[in-house]
Amino acid sequence: MGDLKHVPESPQNHILQEDMENLVTKEADLFASLKGKTVFVTGATGLLGSQMVRALACSNRLSDTGITILAFVRSEEKAGRVFGELLNRGDVRLVRGDISSPVTCGEPVDYVIHGASATSSKYFVTNPVETIMTALNGTRNALEFAREKQVEGFLYLSSLEVYGTPSAGISHIEESYSGYLDQLQVRSSYSESKRMAECLCASYVSEYQVPVKIARLSQTFGAGVEYDDGRVFAEFARCIIEKKNIVLHTAGRTVRSYCYTTDAVAAMLAILLKGETGTAYNVANMNTRISIATMAQFVCGLFPEAGIQVTFDTKDVSSYGYNPEMTVALDSGRLSALGWNPQVNLPDMFRRLVASMELERG
Question: Which residues contact 35 (CB under 8 A, 6 or more apart)?
Fold first, then answer.
């Protein structure tokens, strides 16, 4: 695999490197199932896409699994920034393209992990048409590619947002649940397109026998989150690092469940390799159920040395793309039945996030 076979996957971020090595050790059987296979990852420079690429590469280095990793990217320049010398090892190769166009690759592919997607709430509001079309056209192109390659498995990365606004009193959401979505609100562009993309996946299973499984991810964070990430967990971490008060632009009553990045990667592999075709699986650490406001207070208490507190500024929130207040706590029992269990609790999720973002800041 080249002269740099023993180059670590994230030499500049020892927190992320430790995560990769712990994951590969713990989930050795899953990685061994991919020995000698070719895995094609779309959205490879995104948070979970890049973690999957690094994890597979780490398995090659530590366990000699010989996995060929094809990272589908729009920008080779960004890929160079994300992966650095890892791209010189030989086991990770870039495939340049735009998921909105047909996907082409001249070599055999055994598995596809489709993670290319819009991810910013503000973008969903300012670019709702692009949000929808990226989800639908991108997923169709990925599915057509998988159909052409006659893959052994296809994993679609979906979202907790497919559940819309759950009814009051719903404490944990199973995969059969469907909440309310107002399709005339542009913020629904993401949620509705994720729903439709899931239906498209199911349709490719039925009509073309593409072996699709679906991971419905809760909000996921950990080592590897970029310093300027706009999501709430990154904002809280930046406030700790910069010693600035956390400012909430809502009352913070929305309740969600979360998941650490490496726990999510382990879940993705479990679903891809052991899940049932045509089935969706919730991915969440059920012990992390917490409101935004409570989480903000929790983070301040976890890092008392930062000397910060929570304040509120709710004058105008229309431009932020926030969802209505709701409780979306996923039930991951179906995933647990595949043998998956989360390893990282909420305090350690934030400790590792903050330590990693400090390294990313430089």
Answer: 65, 66, 67
